[in-house]
Amino acid sequence: DVEHVVDLVLAKVSDDFTLPVRGGFDCCVMNPPFGTRATGADVAFVRAALRLCDGPVYSLHKSSTRDYLVRRAGAWGASARVVAELKFDVPKCYAFHRDASRDIAVDLVRFAPAGDAPLPPPPPRGLGSPA
Fold this sequence. Notes:
By secondary structure, the chain is an alpha+beta fold. It has helices spanning 41-52, 66-72; strands at residues 28-30, 57-62, 78-91, 101-113. Helices cover 15% and strands 27% of the residues.
């Protein structure tokens, strides 16, 4: 039974989204819609998460939107940093998908609220880290 530690909410996320939960969150990890069918859908999810989290928000986004997200984060009261560059295999699951599967270049972006401690830099290569 996880009822005491999990809140499940079905809601439409938009730019003015609020969430009726018992308290805030320490961290958010999400895979929002990429915003290719509904422009700005990914941004609405990030902004909602930043309003609800006291700590960082980790979010997957198409790499083509990287510059925009990093540039706009300051207006949302946060900083943004790409922490990983990935390939995301998207299988055909909607009628508008043309290919059986497609690899999409994706960034894992860390949005940190203003005043949040930055990530420490990675260790230098050769000092205990895999080559």
